[in-house]
Amino acid sequence: MKKLFTALSALVVLALAGCLPEERFWWSPDGSHALMQLEDGLYLAGADGAAPVKLDIKLGNEGELASRASWLPDGSGFVVNRVLAFSKWEDAKVVIPPGEAAEVERLARGIPLLITAWNAAHDQKTENTGDVDDWLPVKNRVLLGAAFYLAYTTQRETLEAELRKTPKGEATIEHLREEEMVFPVQEICLVKMKDGKLDGEPRPLARSLRALVFPKISPTAKAVAFLHAMEEEDAAKLEVAMLDGSARLEAAHQISAAFDWTTDGHSLVYSAPVMGKDSNLQRIHRLEVLKADGTLRKRSEGDVAHPDDLKGPVTLALTLMPTSPRVIALPDGRVLFASQPVTFPAKGEGLEVALQLFTVTADGKTLTPVPTAPGDLPANLGWFTASPDGKKLAVVESDTDAVAVVEIDSGKTEIISPVHASWQCRTMPAWKSSTELTFAALKDGAPKWMLWKQGEGVRCISDSWPSSATARWLEEKKKEQPAEKSP
Q: CA-CA distance, 298 to 283, in Å (whole number)?
């Protein structure tokens, strides 16, 4: 049964929507094996065609929040986001930030009064109000959900009495009585590995009732960056946590879902909307978050500045980005992104959509287009990933299942997986090495895991796997129903 309250913010739902290509596998630094998220958990797989092996770690996402993994540079472990489910509030509150716990308890005490006030102000018999979670005046549904469940467990009779006065009260009460009430806690954790198996228990680095997503380990192997969704602000914070658990930093606020570490491992590049969360007009920033010794900078306290304080970001470019923005820091210091070239004033009624790939230097002084030929790149240029050496990128199109490899400096493009008219891609490619790319493609009428190797072509590496493992990696388009003829 559908839960009354979801654990995701609107921002994260948009970023992780099932209609977009998602990251599902991540190769280890030496390319010997890949972490892979399948329907029932996290697996380890290689390119030899052998069946993937399930790892003994509970992600707890239940299809609501996809996990993302990031390897330690030496391949000895990885960081992943997951969801822990607590059946008792007393157990959940001790592992989340004290401020969140206090806010949930404050809201829980007022839930019955909020419903009483709503009943007094509305005509329950005639107004179509939707479900109770739609009209309670609390913007953050994550904290509201926890507060509602806490109120129901501590003030059940009072809450049910007030709910019965609402238009859908009886249905809500029935739903609550049938539903298994849990308090989901989002977690970023470090997982160590040895001989292809987990080595000890995962070490928590950050926990929250709000979504914690997209962990990326610094190349220095000392810190991890991730997004912390703030639903009440319709935005996200970019945070950094030391892998030893010693410190945590709120690096930037009001950013999009696009960020990456620079090769030196001390700075982050990210994009932030200029005019609100839905704006395609975005600035690309570079922000130094680690000091020379690899420890975290701190936000300034008081009026006296300190040399080790977090400085303001350096703006590298002003861009008109696609709906799914992406920035990639290349090994040579340049930053790769997609943007709509814009010149004002524009003739006629507006701009023709013609997204293009660009690189900008680390100082923001030189902006260079990737010289691809017209028609080589998809119109919805939002999903691409660079090779480890920064010389090539793989581009996937969400409206079709085509995959291309592009040389960044020359713009030379090679289609390594052709279009199949009735299919569209739902899986991001991943580089195994600078000359090898794995991706989802159609083979014998079904989605498969494929390996492209420069100079050798493409081969399938999942022929012996159960078809269910890769079934969702591509999606067959729904056929349009013919219009009914008039009598």
A: 23
* 214: CB partners within 8 A, 6+ apart: 15, 68, 81, 226, 227, 257, 259
Measured at the CA of 181, the angle between CA 177 and CA 182, to 5 degrees, comes to 175
Phi, psi of 316 (to 5 degrees): -95, -35
d(CA 235, CA 8): 12
Report the distance separating Cα 43 and Cα 22, nearest Å.
16
434, burial (CB in 10 Å: exposed 0-12, middle 13-18, buried 19+): middle
What does residue 26 show for φ and ψ, rounded to 5 degrees?
-140, 115
* CB-CB contact of 358 with 336 (8 Å): yes
Comparing C-alpha atoms, which of 357, 324, 348, 431 is closest to residue 387?
431
Distance, CA of 74 to CA of 94 (rounded, Å):
33
Tell me if 277 sits within 8 A of 268, measured CB to CB: no
Which token pair is 472? 């969702």
Q: Are 142 and 185 in contact (CB under 8 A)?
A: no
The answer for residues whose C-beta is within 8 angstroms of residue 309's C-beta and 6 or more apart is 297, 298, 299, 300
Residue 51's pLDDT is: 92
Enumerate the β-bridge partners of residue 83: 186
- What are the structural domain ranges in the chain? 89-181
Phi and psi torsions of 154, nearest 5°: -105, -20
CA dihedral 242, 248, 252, 254 (to 10 degrees): 120
Question: For the purposes of burial, counting CB atoms within 10 Å of the CB of 138, is it exposed (0-12), middle (13-18) or buried (19 or more)?
Answer: middle
pLDDT along the chain (487 residues), means of 10: 48 47 95 93 94 92 72 97 94 96 93 83 58 64 88 91 85 85 93 94 96 94 93 81 94 92 97 82 96 90 76 94 92 96 71 84 96 88 95 93 96 95 94 98 96 97 94 86 49
DSSP 296: B
Integer Cα distance of 239 and 138 in angstroms: 25
Instruction: Tell me how far apart the alpha carbons of residues 446 and 475 are, in angstroms, rounded to a whole number.
Output: 10
Which residues, other chains included, contact 363 with Cβ-Cβ below 8 Å and sequence gap of 6+?
Answer: 314, 316
Q: How many CB atoms lie within 10 A of CB 121?
A: 7
Phi, psi for residue 231 in degrees, rounded to 5: -65, -35
Q: How far is Cα 105 from Cα 108, in angstroms, rounded to an integer?
A: 5
Cα–Cα distance list, 177 to 152, 173, 181 (Å) = 10, 6, 9
- Among residues 180, 150, 256, which one has the least CA distance to residue 1? 180
Question: How many Cβ atoms sit within 10 Å of the Cβ of residue 74?
Answer: 10
